[in-house]
Amino acid sequence: MADSMINAGKAAIFDLDGTLLDSMGVWDQVDLDFLGRRGIDVPDDYMVTVASMQFRQIAEYTIARFDLPDTPEQLMEEWDDMARVAYATVVEAKPHAVEYLHRLRATGAKLAVATSLPPSLREPAMSHVGIEHCFDAVVSVDDAGDVGKESPDVYLLAARRLGIMPHNCTVFEDLLIGIRSAKSVGMRAWAMHDDSSDGDWSAICDLADGVLFDFAQAPETL
After folding, report:
1. Hey, what long-range contacts does 22-26 have (CB within 8 A, 24 or more apart)?
2. What's the total number of domains in the chain?
3. Does one domain contain both 139 and 47?
4. What's the pTM?
């Protein structure tokens, strides 16, 4: 990667789960354990359905779908407790993600996170993999009016906080719905492969500006 080819007037906006972090397996296990405690098998479509939702939306959907007596707050607290240990100790970065972030940052490029993860999970995970100081802005769907990634709000918020126009931003995402939203407001979008998105991979490849299996393949220019 040639440093001179990266424009400091541009920005990269990164998803965490499934993009920078090899973490989607954590949620699969949380889903299995959580529903298993209640004698419920995880339906085939459940994980795909909730993948793009924010935390409270997932809780409300889960309660409605399985007719659970819990409140959203009780579900979120239980999930938090189950996931916090894994995010702080088990989750690792995707291949060459840390190196790519440091290289971009060294050129003066602006970097942001746009995630659905709450602070209680994203902060220990980012610290664990050593990327907590890499970003100029960290925003979540909660900061963007609780609007999930089916809308571009969280990406636009990240761009505003970086002071970069949307058309000068490149989004790195693993979710089709996120890639579609970013592209809808003129951002470039590169897709990171994650097993959780295998069902959408063909559509992702058709829509994204590029695809990655490893950040060693990340674009030289933003």
Report:
1. 22/91, 22/92, 22/93, 22/94, 22/194, 23/87, 23/91, 23/125, 24/174, 24/194, 24/195, 24/196, 25/195, 26/83, 26/86, 26/87, 26/90, 26/91
2. 2
3. no
4. 0.81
